[in-house]
From TrEMBL:
Transmembrane region(s): 479-506
Organism per entry: Phaedon cochleariae (Mustard beetle)
Compartments reported by the entry: Membrane
Family stated for the protein in its record: Belongs to the UDP-glycosyltransferase family.
Domain of life of the organism encoding this protein: Eukaryota
GO cellular component, one term: membrane
Protein name, as recorded: UDP-glucuronosyltransferase
Length: 524
């Protein structure tokens, strides 16, 4: 009996063991919001017995991370700063830099950072360790370089994006792209587009496609081959083997687009937990503000301390006149003549602050995670977008009536004050926020449950090749039907030519007859 029991327990142990996978996870972006978007996924997978090696720029500080082993890449922030990234993003447009030159500087900084990460001792050891093995790679694909880990370990991989996926990634997994119905999130357009917007969207997509695949990917391939070996396949081919794409969007908030079964929407507040007590300094300030607090933060990539003087002056003179207290996330102490009602703090536990009932308004750069936290906590917003998807998020913010937006390129005190007071005093904005928050929670499964289920499905099915979209293996001219349209047009052309020739022939015959008759008449 005891032996039987022992056998049974051993068998159970083996079964459990075989289900536990070794997962390599890499979230490349030196950006706090990109990192926190996926923390609940790592924790949940670890809780379910999987062993996770996580490459992250913001290691979690929890004491009991169990099966999660973190590789600290926080030095990435310094590398980005050495390339001047905050400066480009915060002041670039106000200082008249062109979109293209800014994009290039920023993308170069990302590539440099990705390469720096591969040069780190622990990462090198991981790549070179021949007895290391994994069952799955989960990798952030905003920058493509880290996808090469799937080649190194010969494992299936799941691509993850903390915002909507860029066009090239939707394209890589075979999601149907249409620049007019689903404009790229870099463009400040939401459907329906005007004719001019349609023309811009199509041109942007073609130009971007060319730039990504013929300029950026080849140089990124060079980085990959330096660190993963000369024989590594091109990133363009690797990305087509992506088993799943987890996109951190909420379909209630974003526009609806068609996608394959292997694209999983996991957004809608996945990263939001129960509110924790605020640090004393912040709590005292917010508790004491009986008339309410406005919270102002431009996120972690845009630095309030780097704003141009004009913009900062316009903001400060507005804040001074508002009958509210203002908590501003500001990265240094060097601000002169700070109004009495404004408090600067270097870091804010944002979710917990937004959950405080005294917070009446959030002035935000329109980062997706920030907006989700505000919606979740029923706080209306004033948006001041800077970069990336923030402009299109700002349009969604306005069109869904969750608040209003201002343009930082020509912000005046009058305009800013009017906008802020309108959102604070008109209850419609808060009502809309509550409504969208309610419908975001009305789902079959939470984003986290969905992500966990499909991750384990991917492990069980060894990459779920049966869900691969057949569109991926078509040439672009086949996908856009150009060969078929070409054939049909050629057929039509041949048909028309034949008909024209026959008509000409008939005409000649008829005229010949007439001419003959005429000449016969003359002869008679
Ligand atoms: C190589 O990987 C194995 C298996 O995970 C591990 O036990 C070992 O410590 C690693 N070696 C180094 C030098 O990291
Ligand atoms: C600011 O500029 C934008 C275009 O960039 C324009 O649509 C808007 O009306 C301007 N606002 C003010 C207050 O001038
Ligand atoms: C939101 O949901 C709660 C609970 O389900 C309900 O009481 C409330 O009326 C809803 N509010 C709106 C604006 O839909």
């Amino acid at each position: 009996m005891q032996i039987k029991l022992l056998f049974f327990i051993t068998l159970l142990g083996l079964l459990k063991y075989s289900e536990n996978a070794r997962i390599l996870a890499s979230v490349f972006s030196p950006s706090y919001s990109h990192q926190i978007a996926f923390r609940p996924l790592w924790k949940e997978l670890a809780k379910r017995g999987h062993e996770i090696t996580l490459l992250t720029t913001n290691p979690m500080k929890d004491p009991d991370l169990g099966n999660i082993k973190q590789i600290d890449l926080s030095g990435s922030y310094k590398v980005m700063e050495e390339q001047g990234s905050s400066d480009i993003l915060t002041r670039g447009r106000n200082e008249g830099k062109s979109f293209m030159s800014m994009a290039q500087l920023y993308l170069d900084a990302l590539d440099r950072t990705a390469e720096w990460q591969l040069e780190q001792h622990e990462v090198k050891q991981l790549i070179q360790n021949n007895s290391e093995h994994f069952d799955l790679l989960i990798v952030e694909v905003m920058n493509p370089i880290q996808m090469a880990f799937s080649e190194r370990f010969k494992v299936p991989f799941i691509g993850i994006t903390p915002l909507d996926a860029p066009y090239r990634i939707h394209d890589a997994i075979g999601n149907y792209m249409h620049p007019i119905v689903f404009p790229d999130y870099f463009l400040p357009f939401t459907p329906p587009l005007t004719f001019l917007q349609r023309a811009i969207s199509v041109t942007f997509n073609w130009a971007n496609w060319y730039y990504q695949y013929y300029v950026r990917y080849p140089s990124e391939d060079l980085i990959v081959r330096r660190h993963f070996g000369e024989g590594t396949r091109a990133l363009r081919d690797i990305e087509k083997d992506m088993s799943f794409l987890f996109v951190n969007v909420n379909p209630i908030f974003h526009s609806i687009r068609p996608h394959g079964l292997n694209t999983v929407l996991m957004g809608g507040g996945t990263h939001i937990g129960k509110p924790k007590p605020l640090p004393k300094e912040i709590n005292d300030f917010v508790d004491a503000a009986k008339d309410g607090v406005i919270y102002l933060s431009l996120g972690s990539n845009i630095k309030s301390a780097l704003l141009t003087d004009d913009l900062r002056k316009a903001m400060l003179s507005t804040l001074k006149e508002l009958p509210y207290k203002i908590l501003w996330k500001f990265e240094d102490d060097g601000l002169q003549n700070l109004p009495k009602n404004v408090k600067l703090v270097k870091w804010v536990p944002q979710q917990d602050l937004l959950a405080h009932p005294n917070v009446k308004l959030f002035i935000t750069q329109c980062g997706l995670q920030s907006m989700e936290e505000a919606i979740f906590n029923h706080v209306p917003m004033v948006g001041m977008p800077f970069m990336g998807d923030q402009h299109s998020n700002a349009i969604i913010l306005r069109s869904k009536g969750l608040g209003l937006t201002v343009d930082r390129m020509n912000l005046t005190k009058t305009e800013f004050k009017k906008t802020v007071l309108e959102v604070l005093n008109n209850p419609i904005y808060k009502q809309n926020v509550i409504e969208i928050s309610n419908s975001s929670k009305d789902v079959d499964m939470s984003g986290l449950e969905r992500a966990v289920w499909w991750t384990e499905y991917c492990i069980r099915s060894k990459g779920a090749k049966h869900l691969r979209n057949p569109a991926i293996d078509l040439h672009w001219y086949q996908f856009y039907l150009l060969d078929v349209i070409g054939l049909l047009l050629t057929g039509l052309l041949v048909l028309v030519t034949i008909i024209v020739l026959i008509l000409k022939l008939l005409k000649r015959l008829v005229f010949k007859n007439k001419n003959n008759q005429n000449s016969n008449k003359k002869l008679q």
